């Protein structure tokens, strides 16, 4: 499946050149914006894999637009394209979590490898986020099960192992997660 890209630059010629480079390389340019506001709206509509974002644009600059895109998780990654290489812009870009920072003029030999590295890094970050989410859910589920085991131990005078086996058996009998059985036990004892 083609990677979907939004281009945001206030210069029509730059947008056209970037679009041509990307489409020839096999990417799908799903939207082009002339300011940060339109870039955010395009991202809300298309949820692209990547945004190429100019920094200096009217209405909403690229840094503010990037902040919104990252906060709302509207795209997998953002690469800033700019004529500015000052430390203040680079620091702000780092703080916003952009994946790349390219100083104009940009050509195909610079742009395409940067895009591919960004796609690779965004996949890696997504995997790490998913792993962290699963680990957090596992810990939360264990807390609920431990609480339910404590209730069973107290109410029935059984061992911890017996309480666990009781929750597990109910889970298998009802064909639902142990967490759901544990929640029912907790709710029933309130």
- For the record, what is the CATH homologous superfamily label of the largest domain? Response regulator
CATH topology of the largest domain: Rossmann fold
Order of helices and strands: EHEHEHEHEHHH
CA-to-CA gap between the ends?
51 Å
CATH architecture of the largest domain: 3-Layer(aba) Sandwich
Summarize the amount of helix as a percent range. 55-70%
CATH class of the largest domain: Alpha Beta
Number of domains: 2
Mean pLDDT: 93
Report the structural category.
alpha/beta
According to DSSP, the number of beta strands is 5
Query: Globular, elongated, flat, extended or rod-shaped: what is the shape?
Result: elongated
Classify the beta-strand content into a percent band: 5-15%
Number of helices: 7
Spatial strand sequence of the major β-sheet? 2-1-3-4-5
Stretches with pLDDT under 50, minimum 5 residues: none
Which sheet architecture does the biggest sheet show? 5 strands, parallel
Query: Roughly how many Å is the radius of gyration?
Result: 25 Å
């Amino acid at each position: 499946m083609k990677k979907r890209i939004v281009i945001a630059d206030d210069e029509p010629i730059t947008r056209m050149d970037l679009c041509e480079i990307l489409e020839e390389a096999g990417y799908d340019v799903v939207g082009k914006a002339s300011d940060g506001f339109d870039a955010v709206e395009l991202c809300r509509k298309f949820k692209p894999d990547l945004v190429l974002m100019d920094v200096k644009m009217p209405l909403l600059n690229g840094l503010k637009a990037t902040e919104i895109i990252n906060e709302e998780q509207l795209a997998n990654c953002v690469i800033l394209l700019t004529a500015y290489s000052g430390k203040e812009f680079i620091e702000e870009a780092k703080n916003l979590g952009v994946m790349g920072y390219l100083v104009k003029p940009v050509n195909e030999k610079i742009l395409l490898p940067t895009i591919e590295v960004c796609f690779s890094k965004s996949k890696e970050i997504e995997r790490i986020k998913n792993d962290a989410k699963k680990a957090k859910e596992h810990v939360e589920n264990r807390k609920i099960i431990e609480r339910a085991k404590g209730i069973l131990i107290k109410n029935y005078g059984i061992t911890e192992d017996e309480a666990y086996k009781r929750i597990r058996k109910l889970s298998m009998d009802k064909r639902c997660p142990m967490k759901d059985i544990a929640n029912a036990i907790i709710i029933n004892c309130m």
